[in-house]
Amino acid sequence: MKIGNFEVNIISDGTFKLDGGGMYGIVPKALWEKRTPADAQNRITLGMNCLLVQTGKKNYLIETGIGSGYTEKFKSIYDIHGGNRLIPGLAKLGVIPEEIHGVIVTHLHFDHAGGCTICGVDGKPVPAFPKAKYFIQKQEWHDAMHPNELTDGSYLDEKFLPIKSRKSLELIKGDAKIDKGIQVQLTGGHTKGHQIVWIESEGKKACFLGDFIPTTNHLKLAWVMAYDSYPIELVNLKRSILAKLVEEKCYCFWYHDPNIAVSCLGLDTKGNAVVKAI
Questions:
Q1: Which CATH architecture does the domain made up of 2-276 adopt?
Q2: What's the chain's Rg over C-alpha atoms?
Q3: What is the pLDDT of residues 186-213, one digit of tens each?
Q4: pTM
Q5: What is the pLDDT of residues 131-172, one digit of tens each?
Q6: For 4, which of 83, 105, 200, 202 could close a Cys bridge (C-beta 3.0–4.6 Å)?
Q7: Which of 169, 36, 26 lies closest to 105 in space, CA to CA?
């Protein structure tokens, strides 16, 4: 699709599964299961919808998917189908890894940053996009390097440490302009260093929401994840972000939604944000 002068393509890295209760937090299963059926292990299917933004001068990748190189046990726990589709997906669009100028990662959990690295010729992980700068919040990098008992399982340092060793890392502190028409906003909420990405060209606007609002089923203010480290902070900002998305008629990119990767938003009769067809 086009956003002003920018060419934008969604590239799926496949699907995986997480516990439904984890994805919907305090929302009773009787409510969320109507929207997202669970399997026998209470897991629900999630997408991994990465985004390629081509400005005409540079190519930016937002999110890198779950990546590959996991054990069979790990793949079974998360029922991973994919993890090796991002680079072939880029190839179908005529883009090779060396032609990616920047990689913007909303946060460093393995299902978003797993594709930051690939296995090198010596068997060790190396940056998957060797000429790119990886734009990550300084706070997120710190927290990923110093996980606690609750976050340790979400950060796999072999997926992002090689970025620093190859001097590909660009640490950001707060809101920042990446390029003309591409900005990041520090949201916190899911993690302290979580960021979303705003895209604007020729008066057209879009937002890549990462895990701030992971699927269209999480539009309701109280529908947040048990995985969110700072849920009250998230809800407070979510209210104003949703209002902006509706008012400015933004395209919304949903990273984890397996059915709707992009939509606009409107309001229902009660004034709540709802999906609106493009």
A1: 4-Layer Sandwich (3.60)
A2: 18
A3: 999 999 999 999 999 999 999 999 999 9
A4: 0.97
A5: 999 999 999 999 999 999 999 999 999 999 999 988 899 999
A6: 202
A7: 169
